[in-house]
Amino acid sequence: MILLIEQEHEDEKKEAPVADAEDFNTQVIREFRENGGKVGGPFEGAPVLLLHHKGAKTGTERVNPLMYQQVGDSIAIFASKGGAPTNPDWYHNLAAHPDTTIEVGAGTVKVSAREAGPEERAPIWEKQKETYPQFAAYEETSGDRQIPVILLDPEA
């Protein structure tokens, strides 16, 4: 991501790098682990987990902080990608490798990921938009893409 910084003269604008998503995620992950699953900033007060996943093509282990919603014994996560017109990489990674782990609070849970079907998705998505209005905004900016709802079912 690039941010334009205004200089004294309009014609002297210079581009300065701003922390990219990976740097942001690294900070959130560190804070999550240091505080038993609690984080501040844009996630303050929201339920957050750390999703572990393997690259679909590379097999590289990755971790992403995500907001979630408890749905019975399962956990719903949302492939919003901040309202982008494409799905996040972790969505494709879970499709390729659905058996994974999540960190919730101070614990780790083995889960199996599956995409919610239309009837299952609708009430979960509506509740997420009502509880966290930024998800309604993501829906507006995602174009024709329907934001997938992924259910993480705990392994027995």
Describe what you observe in this structure.
The protein is built from four helices and eight strands. With 156 residues, it is of the alpha+beta class. It has a single domain (37-154), classed as Electron Transport, Fmn-binding Protein, Chain A (Pnp Oxidase, Chain A, Roll). The strands form two sheets. The protein has a six-stranded antiparallel beta barrel. The longest helix has 14 residues, at 21-34. The radius of gyration is 17 Å and the shape is globular. The model is unreliable at 1-19 (pLDDT under 50).
Strand order of the largest sheet: 3-4-5-8-7-6
Question: What is the CATH-assigned architecture?
Answer: Roll
The CATH superfamily appears as Electron Transport, Fmn-binding Protein, Chain A
Encode the helix/strand succession as letters.
Answer: EEHEEEHEEHHE
CATH fold call: Pnp Oxidase, Chain A
Number of strands: 8
Query: What's the mean pLDDT score?
Result: 87
Structural class, please?
alpha+beta
**End-to-end Cα distance:** 41 Å
Strand content: 25-35%
Describe this protein with a few key phrases.
globular; alpha+beta; 156 residues; Pnp Oxidase, Chain A; two-stranded antiparallel ribbon; 4 helices; six-stranded antiparallel barrel
The gist of it:
The protein has 156 residues and is an alpha+beta fold. The chain contains four helices and eight strands.
Secondary-structure topology with pairs:
Layout: E1 2-5, E2 14-17, H1 21-34, E3 48-54, E4 61-71, E5 74-78, H2 89-96, E6 99-104, E7 107-115, H3 118-131, H4 134-141, E8 149-154
Antiparallel strand pairs: 1-2, 3-4, 3-6, 4-5, 5-8, 6-7, 7-8
